[in-house]
Amino acid sequence: GSVKSWSQEKKILRKADNGSHLSCSDWDDDTVYPTGKCTTGDAVQCESLTNYSAFNTLCPAACNVTNSTWGVPCAWEVISRLDEACETWTTGKQVFNWTYPDSSGNESPDLYKEYEYNVKDGYDYVPYAFNSSVDSSEWDDCNTHAFCYSCTSDEAEVNEFCKYMVGKYDTIYTASAFFKNFDFWCGKVQLIKSGGFQLDMSCADDPTSEGCDGYQELLDFKAAYAS
Predict the structure, then answer these.
(1) What is the pLDDT of residues 33-81, one digit of tens each?
(2) Burial 86-101 (b: 16+ CB within 10 A, else e)
(3) DSSP line for the chain
(4) Quick count: other Cβ atoms within 10 Å of Cβ 206?
(5) What pLDDT is stored for residue 193 in this prediction?
(6) Cα(111)–Cα(118) distance, rounded to whole angstroms?
(7) Is the separation of the CB atoms in 170 and 178 below 8 Å?
(8) 131 forms bridges with which residues in the sheet?
(9) Distance of CA 179 to the CA centre of its chain
(10) Cα–Cα dist 165/202, whole Å
(11) Model confidence at 153, in pLDDT bands (50, 70, 90)?
C-alpha cells in the first residue's frame, strides 16, 4: 500500500512515506498537523472516549474544551506511559499527569514550506482518509501525527507499549478500543516491561480474543471516515 500525501506536487510525493515503513519524520511537522480536519475528527472521537472512566480520570481536560480537543493525543500519551497510567487508575496516586501537546518534534524533513505553498494555491492538502500502509495496518496523517508525538523518542525508537497496541489492533486508530480494554492492558504492564508478553494474534485475526472488546466499533468508525 501507500500513504496518501496531502499534496499532489511531485516534490512532496517524493518526500512522502511510501508505505513500506512508517517514518515519523514525514508526519511530525506540528505546523502542518494537526489541521482543522484533524481536530474535527478528534472531537468526534471524544464523544466515544468520554464514555470511559479511565479516560476521564487520566485525560480530564482533553475533551473538556469547546475548540480543538486533543483526546487522541492524550490517549497515545496514556498508552506510552501505561505503567504510570495504570498505577494512577488502580491506586488513586497521581503518578500519571497529562501534558498538553504544545511542543514540537519536527524532525527532518520539515515540510512546512511546501505546506504553505499549497495553502496559498488553494490545494486540498490534508486527506482525511485511512490508508493501507505498514504490513496491511492502516494509518492516516492525523493519527500518525498523534502517534509520533507520544510514541517515538528523539532517537526514533518506538515505545514498547505503543508497539503492542498497534500490533493488537492492527491500526493506530486504537484510542477507543484501548480504553474499552483498559483493565486488560493494565494486567499486561509488567509482562510487556519484562519482554514476556507474547502477542500471538491481532484482533483482526481473532476479534473474539481477549483485549478485543470494541474492535468492531473501531472498524465501523474507520469505515465511516473513509467514505
Answers:
(1) 555 556 677 888 899 999 999 999 999 999 988 777 889 999 999 999 9
(2) bbbbeeeeeebebeeb
(3) --PPPS---HHHHTTS--SSS--GGGT--TTTSS-HHHHHHHHHHHHHHTT-HHHHHH-TTTSSSSS---HHHHHHHHHHTHHHHHHHHHH---------S-S---PSSP-HHHHHHHHHTT--------EE-GGG-EE-HHHHHHHHHHHB-TT-PBPHHHHHHHHHHSBS--HHHHHHTHHHHHTTHHHHHHT-------TTT-TTSTT-TTHHHHHHHHHHHH-
(4) 12
(5) 93
(6) 11
(7) no
(8) 139
(9) 13
(10) 10
(11) confident
Q: Looking at this protein, which amino acid is placed at residue 209?
A: S
Q: Average the pLDDT over 143-161 and give the result.
A: 80
Please give the model's pTM, rounded to 2 decimal places: 0.76
Is the CB of residue 172 less than 8 Å from the CB of residue 143?
yes
CB 105 within 8 Å of CB 28: yes
Query: Position 26: which residue type?
Result: D
Instruction: Tell me how far apart the alpha carbons of residues 101 and 227 are, in angstroms, rounded to a whole number.
Output: 29
Q: Give the three cell numbers for residue 204.
A: 483482526
